[in-house]
Amino acid sequence: MRLKVKRLKDIPLPSYATPGSSGLDLYAAEDVEIPPGEFKLVGTGIAVEIPPGFEGEVRPRSGLAAKYGVTLLNTPGTIDSDYRGEVKVVLINHGREIFHVRKGMRIAQLVIKKVERVEVCEVEELGETGRGEGGFGSTGL
Asked: Is residue 28 a part of any domain in this protein?
């Protein structure tokens, strides 16, 4: 499968760090400072054309979380196959120091996933299960 990428700024194209990587690294297209407890929208300098029947999932980088307490506010973020704007990520700083995003820094990863479309059918009743309506915490710790 091919992922068409339009470079909007002088920034590296998404790339796999290793042959076994699931996610393509996304790079910051700008310098941004994120104070502790705050979040910022950071551009990646690219737009993508995801094939129909697929989506892009934007996920955090574990190294940023482990070393600095920085992660994505909405994760996974979804890029729909018909979106053609700049890919941006919402970074949040859970750390104790200002986090300095630098242009060219790897800030997130993009995983391309197959998605299924469903037909929505309104019904009067749903099938029963052993769990039923048990919600948060209902299956134990």
From this structure: yes
